[in-house]
Amino acid sequence: MADHEDPKTGKKNKGTSKEVCGYPLSIFFIVVNEFCERFSYYGMRAVLVLYFKYFLRWDDDLATSIYHTFVALCYLTPILGAIVADSWLGKFKTIIYLSIVYAIGQVAMAVSAIHDITDTDRDGTPNNMTFHVVLSMVGLFLIALGTGGIKPCVAAFGGDQFGDHQERQRRTFFSVFYLCINGGSLLSTIITPILRAQNCGIYSKQKCYSLAFGVPAALMVVALVVFIVGSGMYYKAKPEGNIMGDVCKCIGFAISNRYKHRSKQYPSREHWMDWAEDKYDKLLIAQIKMVLKVLFLYIPLPMFWTLFDQKGSRWTLQATTMDGNFGAIVIQPDQMQTVNPILILTLVPIMDSVIYPLIKKCGLNFTPLKRMTVGMFLAALAFVCAAVVQIEIDVSRKHLTYFNLTQFVNGMNKPVNVSTSEVVFGQIEKFHYSNYSQIRNGRATFFLQSGQLSCAFSRDFGFGSSYTFFIPSTLSLGSNCQESITGAEDIKPNSVHMALQVPQYFFITAGEVMFSVTGLEFSYSQAPSNMKAVLQAGWLLTVAIGNFIVLIVAEVAKLPKQWTEYVLFASLLLCVCIIFSIMAYFYTYIDPTEIEAKFRRNVGDDDDDKNDKQRKLEMEMMKRDLDRSDDEHYKGKQTKM
Ligand SMILES: CC(C)[C@H](NC(=O)[C@H](C)N)C(=O)O
């Protein structure tokens, strides 16, 4: 679809073919695509750490490390996606191709979780773990490539659909887009843990990770199909060339030129990037200066993500040692992560319509960088809460899992078969005992069968408990199993309730709203027009680095107590928060459009008969404008911090 220009206003209108309530119809497909894609991503991520621990049988540290390596990869690949889209394929084709890679990755994960594939002895555990590990790692790599690669493209592609006369609609689109991310995340983190908790299998029933990965895979296919269906309605901007490549070359030239002219005989220049002026356009140099200023400010930010992304690893593992019985419903450990999107969906509107306006009314200038600083502080507070909960667990805890384990001792002089509707203990020989098997939390009914004898009994199981049941020698036809069979509690159920995790989720999510939502907008508003994607990729890179820091700190610190690790992370973020607040104090907001317009005007003036002296003077003033950014208010009028 081509650009249309309003003959009266001269403004571009990209999507004029079909509009609904002032919005391009194509937006509907993009929003639905994002919802399905985020469902797919967060659904798979929600059960990932438990898959590592209980299916692949890795320990907590390895599970946490691989989880964060995967998340880090997901946020490294946006750079790749941005380069491919901008310089080669364009956003539309990049989204299509990488979505296919993404869907293949999800399918590979689902297949890797089918234990029957290698369960040759049919005992319920895979016999060739290497197959499952390799296939799941390949799957995760493809998912990281796909989800990260399309991430900087989808939002920008949505933004592209609006014409210049649809500024208001475009802003609303970005809010709806963020709500879709969290709507998808909310639904999937409720649903996939339920699927995982089911028992499934051909030869033997085990926890159904294949279904928990299979549904996200199906949703990714739906996302792709929805996106393709809308293809006739999209405005498809042509690739603008490799801006990232240009930026790198320009910076490289500035550094090498500075080095070549290091002798004192050459006069110094105001900014080291000015050494690129000998070869590169002044506008490009000015734009790079703006980007570098923001990137410098990004240096401390990864620490926020280091804490934030432990919701899916350490906090989920913490929940496995807690009691998820909420009376009417039983919450799975991985379902606790839903608290985050639920709070996002409530806190974002409250912040925007109540808290921020109230702060403004009190005469406080709560600038983006101040909000981000408060967000960091709240995340540190969340980890203090996590540490307190952990101490509580350690005091009460006798064991390490939320599964209930049960075994039977057959005291009869003949074999007996024991089963529940989901678990088969098999035949227990006379005077023998069975292996421990996992039983679902809540009430379970056991069926006993031995020759003519057939009876049933039921028991309640608390989170994490373990029991041994004795089948007495006196059990005979007509016996009441409910009364005859006695059980010994090997391990007491978890006693610390999962509700205690709510405060830490509240603080981390309030921190996210202040830090992440604001940071996204800040990155957009402070970026030059042609480098918005570059800064978005830079912003996402801070998430990747944050996840690598988890690995490094956890590996280097090797703290014996989990609560001390939480305190360490909280302290580190607090220190970083102080450093960031100092850096933010010295940052002055700029209006990139204004600065760019000045440079462009100057280029236009070249055609006029301006004398050289006047032009030089103007250029000097512009450079000073950019380097000192000394206006007074934010957004057009700039302000400190
Ligand atoms: C990584 C982003 C902050 C964003 N995540 C969320 O909004 C979570 C679900 N609260 C995303 O783009 O996935």
From TrEMBL:
<feature type="transmembrane region" description="Helical">
    <location>
        <begin position="534"/>
        <end position="554"/>
    </location>
</feature>
<dbReference type="GO" id="GO:0015031">
    <property type="term" value="P:protein transport"/>
</dbReference>
<feature type="transmembrane region" description="Helical">
    <location>
        <begin position="371"/>
        <end position="391"/>
    </location>
</feature>
<protein>
    <recommendedName>
        <fullName>Solute carrier family 15 member 1</fullName>
    </recommendedName>
</protein>
<feature type="transmembrane region" description="Helical">
    <location>
        <begin position="95"/>
        <end position="117"/>
    </location>
</feature>
<comment type="similarity">
    <text>Belongs to the major facilitator superfamily. Proton-dependent oligopeptide transporter (POT/PTR) (TC 2.A.17) family.</text>
</comment>
<keyword id="KW-1003">Cell membrane</keyword>
<dbReference type="InterPro" id="IPR018456">
    <property type="entry name" value="PTR2_symporter_CS"/>
</dbReference>
<dbReference type="GO" id="GO:0006857">
    <property type="term" value="P:oligopeptide transport"/>
</dbReference>
<keyword id="KW-0325">Glycoprotein</keyword>
<dbReference type="Pfam" id="PF00854">
    <property type="entry name" value="PTR2"/>
</dbReference>
<feature type="transmembrane region" description="Helical">
    <location>
        <begin position="129"/>
        <end position="150"/>
    </location>
</feature>
<feature type="transmembrane region" description="Helical">
    <location>
        <begin position="20"/>
        <end position="42"/>
    </location>
</feature>
<keyword id="KW-1133">Transmembrane helix</keyword>
<feature type="transmembrane region" description="Helical">
    <location>
        <begin position="566"/>
        <end position="590"/>
    </location>
</feature>
<feature type="transmembrane region" description="Helical">
    <location>
        <begin position="342"/>
        <end position="359"/>
    </location>
</feature>
<dbReference type="GO" id="GO:0015293">
    <property type="term" value="F:symporter activity"/>
</dbReference>
<feature type="transmembrane region" description="Helical">
    <location>
        <begin position="171"/>
        <end position="191"/>
    </location>
</feature>
<dbReference type="InterPro" id="IPR000109">
    <property type="entry name" value="POT_fam"/>
</dbReference>
<feature type="transmembrane region" description="Helical">
    <location>
        <begin position="502"/>
        <end position="522"/>
    </location>
</feature>
<feature type="transmembrane region" description="Helical">
    <location>
        <begin position="211"/>
        <end position="235"/>
    </location>
</feature>
<feature type="region of interest" description="Disordered">
    <location>
        <begin position="620"/>
        <end position="641"/>
    </location>
</feature>
<comment type="function">
    <text>Electrogenic proton-coupled amino-acid transporter that transports oligopeptides of 2 to 4 amino acids with a preference for dipeptides. Transports neutral and monovalently charged peptides with a proton to peptide stoichiometry of 1:1 or 2:1. Primarily responsible for the absorption of dietary di- and tripeptides from the small intestinal lumen. Mediates transepithelial transport of muramyl and N-formylated bacterial dipeptides contributing to recognition of pathogenic bacteria by the mucosal immune system.</text>
</comment>
<feature type="transmembrane region" description="Helical">
    <location>
        <begin position="62"/>
        <end position="83"/>
    </location>
</feature>
<keyword id="KW-0571">Peptide transport</keyword>
<keyword id="KW-0769">Symport</keyword>
<keyword id="KW-0813">Transport</keyword>
<dbReference type="GO" id="GO:0016324">
    <property type="term" value="C:apical plasma membrane"/>
</dbReference>
<keyword id="KW-0472">Membrane</keyword>
<dbReference type="InterPro" id="IPR036259">
    <property type="entry name" value="MFS_trans_sf"/>
</dbReference>
<keyword id="KW-0812">Transmembrane</keyword>
<feature type="compositionally biased region" description="Basic and acidic residues">
    <location>
        <begin position="620"/>
        <end position="635"/>
    </location>
</feature>
<feature type="transmembrane region" description="Helical">
    <location>
        <begin position="290"/>
        <end position="308"/>
    </location>
</feature>
<keyword id="KW-0653">Protein transport</keyword>
